[in-house]
Amino acid sequence: MSAEQGSGLPFSKARCITLVLTVTCAAFLNTMGVQAAVIILPTIGKHLSIPDSRQQWVISAYSLTFGCFLLLWGRIADVYGKRLIFLWGSVWLTVTSLVAPFVTNEIGFDIFRGLQGLGAAAMVPTAIGILGVTFPPGKAKNYAFSCYGAGAPLGGIFGNIFGGVLGQYLDWRWVFWIFAILAAIVTVAGYFIIPLPPIQTEAISMRNTVDWIGGTLITVGLLILLFALSEGNVVGWSTPWVPVLIVVSILMIALFAFWQHYLEKRGTSKPLMKVSIFKNIRFSAANVIMLLFFASFNNFLIYATYWFQDYLALSVIQTTIRFIPTGVSGIIVAFITAQLLSRVRGDLILTFGTLCVSISSLLFAIPIPTDTTYWAYGFPAMVLSVCGADTLYPTLTLFTAKSLPSEDQALGGALINAVGQVGRAIGLAVATAVQTAVMAREEGTSVEQIGNAGHAAGKGSEALKVGLRSASWFNFAIALGAVGVVMLFFRGAGKVGHKT
């Protein structure tokens, strides 16, 4: 037995480190691509002649395909091989990122953004699955999941810096081209670093058991739901087809749940997702926490960007500089979290994380004078937000991995990320509705007019200030909701990083 194997490592230390870094890039690139696009969104809109009311589709097209295909890709990866699907996804992400900037019309560009999300949806759940089946419970697994857990929030943070610097000093297209280069590097690294799976007759026999009916129901259901939520604030929630689509999506998701229950009880074919896993109260609570946390943290990043750029009228690079503390503190917190997972109870870590995320939004919500120095509210908010994200995300993903058998690891990764993506869509839709309603009240106009005018219409105005702060109060409230779920269902929870 080698020294590495004796210490619980499946390979040499160097290969384990490169493996973790390689698969962590899936989470990092995913959120980095979204946030970088947010920063350069006005520039893209100007060059492609996209009006303010439709610019959100540059972001939403990616999020739609990413969130909707996670569960299906997760099951396909568990059946056909996590390494294969990870590599397929990274190649696809490379090609679509490379081609997208060459598309000069709005619809074509949005389609390629959606294709980018399809590739990311194949990479993210398989990355969690690869870590889950590669590392046995113990210190190495804690470090691996802490590193992976830091990837998503750090990707969002560095996306601001990446998009801001390139958008300021280079052509906006370089954001996508350099992103494609990074994805290509991950592809090459994954090919050489991710181990080939052992040939298992059970896996081969499972290859005809992908639940395509269930996959279609949940994928189409989520697609309709996220589309309706994304469009509601543009066309108005009173538009007849918006609530109709929401009801249809809910019915399809409910039908998916019934179908999965039927397959699991019948036992003759494998369901896409075992409904029985939700009988574990803490597992269900972990998904609720993920939904609320992701909604609040994502909204914090977006509304902090709006505050700096749209209300304070700062440049892209000035806004980028204000996000730098999140990157520095995020790296530090990721290393500390790896040590805490096996030493501190899970409920304490989750309580700390949810409180940090809530306070970060609170600091942007309270009515402090607008000429207050950034160091008094912006800096502590940035640090606290990543303290919350980089403790919550690895704890929840590690808990999910421990709760499921090895054959469902990629699906578990898909589920926790799909829940987060739905939380992001619902949270942003409600926060935007709150903001536009408050701005409409302040300006004495209709919600539809505010939504179509965009943020720039009220730049520096009192109505915009009150609207942004109202949205931040909402973000604070949903993070407090996550605190409540932790206290109710995780009280006395053990150390997530302990060997079982």
UniProtKB/TrEMBL annotation:
Its main location: membrane. GO terms for cellular component: membrane. Keywords: Membrane, Transmembrane, Transmembrane helix, Transport. This is Drug resistance protein. InterPro entries: MFS (IPR011701), MFS_dom (IPR020846), MFS_trans_sf (IPR036259). GO terms for molecular function: transmembrane transporter activity. Pfam families: MFS_1. It is found in: Membrane. SUPFAM superfamilies: MFS general substrate transporter. Residues 19-496 form the Major facilitator superfamily (MFS) profile domain. It comes from the Eukaryota. It comes from Lophiotrema nucula. It is a multi-pass membrane protein. The chain crosses the membrane at residues 55-73, 85-103, 115-135, 142-162, 174-197, 209-229, 241-263, 284-308, 320-341, 348-368, 473-490.
